[in-house]
Structure formats: structure tokens, C-alpha cells
Amino acid sequence: MNKYFMGSAIIERDMQDIYQRNIDWSNFNNQTVLITGATGMLASYIVYFFIYLNEIHNANIDILALVRNQAKCHQRFGSYAAKKYFQILNDDFTEPIKIKRKVDFIIHAASLASPQYYKLTPIEVAEPNAIGTYYLLQFAQKQQVRGFLFFSTGDIYGYIPSSNSITEDTAGSMDPLDLHSCYGESKRMGETWCATFASERKVPSHIVRIGHTYGPTMDIENDPRVFAAFMKCIYYGKDIIMLSNGTAKRSFCYIADAIAGFLLVLLEGEVGAAYNVCNSREFLSISELAELMVRLRPELNLKVIQKQRIDSESYLENKNNKANKLTEEKLMTLGWECHYDSYMGFCSVLKYLQGV
């Protein structure tokens, strides 16, 4: 049996790093937390952390994991999914919630975030963000929850003609008839629900606008986003194929930093407000990211090869902003800080994939 938490030295180190932040984790003691999309890349790390609080720090948190695929849930969380404090739910949250248990916190992370879905299943992309958020907020009101956290996105900023940095007050345009907008527009509606329920019905809702985030739980086999696609090449020892000119720039945030930010906003953020969660210090072009990746395994002498994306592919690239630089200054007012640069973060991902 592997001695490390979740069978990985990387996961255990990340859990310890999150725990050691200046956040009062006792707020979750003896509470029930509902997490939608619990097997997703980001949400699963939150579940890992609540399991860690239970197993290592006796927090006595009841975890309600709302998922579409029970088998994937058991695979993701292993024997912990059979613990008394862990309950797997299959409720459809795009209709009124039927959960009978008392819930103290809700983290709404269920979403089809990858652009590979925007062209093929745009309705299914929009539903959990707009309709699902509405019903979960109704449920949160009835439950009188202590906190509700909505996973939004930097995509909500839309097209911004010229901006060196994007703060929470920035407002750009978005074409509602563009299929790519099925994600950003529905997230905007979700945010509006959070703000209106906070104002009119006093639901303590909080919003995190998530920038490009990566970590050990990303699906390198099926996720076509650049950070996952590039990591797949590095893991299998292949040259990176870059399907663009590589000039677009994004901020890349390691998952342990992001999770600490999400939970800090849930516990201490302003009600009805949004916070960017990103790492603007790691503002890299796609070319720079690719070159960083090949340096992770210098002994292989891997190359970066540029090719043109085929128009018929299902992946819908976000062409709104070529330099989408979110800033995290507002989050930093809560005491948040980044611990990982991109090289450290992607090294961690590779080590995890290699079984460390």
C-alpha cells in the first residue's frame, strides 16, 4: 500500500501546502458540503482536501459528491468513496433539488469547461451554468447555507479591445449567437443569479472567475486544451504539436494555489461579489508554454512543431482576446498568494503522471 495520501507524494504535498495557508479551516468542521461535478479536474482536488481534513485533522466533514458517473467517482477517490462521511449523489440539478439532508456549504463546480464541447453540445454546456445555478441557489436559500461558491470563468469578460490587465470591474462584449458564447454567456447568467439571490434572498453566494488552471487531475488523454495536450506529448516523450501561431497569452495557475483561493473566497469573500483566481506572474504565450514544457525532459531533446488547426475539428478556440491577462489583486486583499511558478507546477504534474 502506498504510504502517501491518495497514493501520491505530489498530492500529499499539495494538501499540506493548502492546509498551511493562513485560512481558518475549522470553519468546515462538523459541516456538510455539497460539491457538484465532484470528479472534475478542479472539484476533485477540493474533495481531496476535505478528505484530507477528515483523515489527517479529524474535521468530521460530510462530503456529498454530486456526479454523473459513479464508477468514475470510485476510481477518482478510491476507498475514501466508501467512507461513512462520503455520499455519492446522482441528482439532476437542472431541475428542483430533491436532496433531503441538511447542507451547510455548496460548491457548484459542475461544468463542461473544455472548448471541445462548445460546438458539439452547446445546450449541455449552458444548462449547468444557467439553469443548474438557479436551482442550486433556490436549494441554498431553503437550506440557509453558510456559503455558496459558483465556479465562473475568465471567459465572461468577452472581447476587450485593449487592456493590459483585466480586473473584476472590466466589462467586454460577447456575441450571444456565437456558439463559443454558450459557455461564457451562461456563466454570466450564473453570476447574475448569484448576485440577485444574494441581494433579494440573502443567500451568501460567492463567485470565482477562474483563469487557466492546471494540475495532476487534468485528463491528458481527452482534454484538448493546450496545457493538457502539451503535457500529453511530454509524458509520452513526443514532440509538441502547436495548432496555432503561439502568440496568444494566458496566465497559468497551479491547482494548489487555485484551490486555496477558491476556499478563501467561500469563507472570507464579499457576498455577491466575484474574484479573479489566476497567477498573473505566469503570463505566458502558447509558444513560451510549449518551450517550458519541453524543458521538463531535456534528455529527450523534444521539439515544438507548429501546424494549422483543421477547420472541421470540434474544438472552438476563444478568439476574443489574444492577451487575456486577469489580475488577482482583489483576491490578494484577502491574504491569498501564489506558491508555484509554471516550471514548478508542470514539473509536479509530470511527476504525478510518472507515479511519484
- For the record, what CATH class applies? Alpha Beta
Tell me the total number of β-strands: 13
CATH superfamily: NAD(P)-binding Rossmann-like Domain
Global Rg: 19 Å
N- and C-termini, Cα separation: 14 Å
Number of helices: 10
Organism: Pectinatus haikarae
Pfam family, one: Epimerase
Transmembrane segments: 33-53
Cofactor: NAD(+)
Note down, in words, how this protein is organized:
This protein is α/β, with parallel strands linked by helices and 356 residues long. The chain has helices spanning 9-19, 41-57, 70-77, 122-143, 181-201, 226-235, 255-268, 286-294, 329-332, 342-353; strands spanning 32-36, 62-66, 86-89, 105-108, 147-153, 205-210, 212-214, 240-242, 249-254, 274-277, 283-285, 304-306, 323-324. It has a single domain, classed as 3-Layer(aba) Sandwich (Rossmann fold), CATH 3.40.50.720. Helices cover 36% and strands 15% of the residues. It has a seven-stranded parallel beta sheet, sandwiched between helices. Strands 7, 9, 11 and 13 form a four-stranded mixed beta sheet that branches. Strands 8-12 form a two-stranded parallel ribbon. Helix 1 (9-19) packs parallel to helix 7 and helix 4 (122-143) packs parallel to helix 5 (181-201). The radius of gyration is 19 Å and the shape is globular. The protein starts with 8 loop residues before the first helix and ends with a helix. This is Nucleoside-diphosphate-sugar epimerase. Residues 33-278 form the NAD-dependent epimerase/dehydratase domain. The chain crosses the membrane at residues 33-53.
